[in-house]
Amino acid sequence: MVRIFALLLFVAFASAAQAGQPRTMMDCFNEAGRTYKVPPMLLQAIAWVESRYDKNANNYNTNGSVDMGVMQINSLWLEPLAEYGIEQRHLYNACLNINIAAWILRKQINEVGYNWQAVAHYHSRTPERGDSYARKVARVYFALKRQREEQQQKQQMLGKQVAER
Q1: Strand partners for 60
Q2: For the chain, how are helix, strand and coil distributed in percent, rounded to 5?
């Protein structure tokens, strides 16, 4: 498992470097979603709730831990991530942070199923904190989904208008 995770991260960064083009955060959400089989839009919703897409965000928790980067990876993950050569400073790379979050979310999905409880566990195992968090993410997720559907409808309407001319 360790080698697979490290290989996936290496391939993701190598392919972007070969393309010679800077990746957008959206590219990172899409890439992480494909790699870990989680909806990119769900990752976007989590990022919005966690940091409002701020790759340099920090949050100091009452238990002494720190949440870092766009997806607010908690410092408690630093020990398991060290096995992959990932250090605290790496968590401020937005694409790596998003990929790590997708990996963490996939672990939760594998444990409890593909449901909102997995999202709750991404944040906290304490039911009231996790459930509240999952509801926030769900609201953002469904708002993003509606927004995308509206944009698609507008594009379809414009396409029909152009075709009719």
Answers
A1: 66
A2: 75, 5, 20
Q: Are strands 66-68 and 73-74 parallel, antiparallel or unpaired?
A: antiparallel
Report the C-alpha gap between 138 and 19 in whole angstroms: 34
Contact call for residues 8 and 2 (beta carbons, < 8 A): no
Domains in the chain with CATH codes: 2-164 (1.10.530.10)
Distances (CA, A) of 84 to 14, 72, 118: 16, 19, 23
Percent of the chain scoring above 90 in pLDDT:
78
| Spatial distance between the Cα atoms of 146 and 9, rounded to a whole number of angstroms | 31
Other CB atoms closer than 10 Å to residue 73's CB: what's the count?
A: 26
Average pLDDT, the chain: 89
CA 110 – CA 36 distance, rounded (Å)? 11
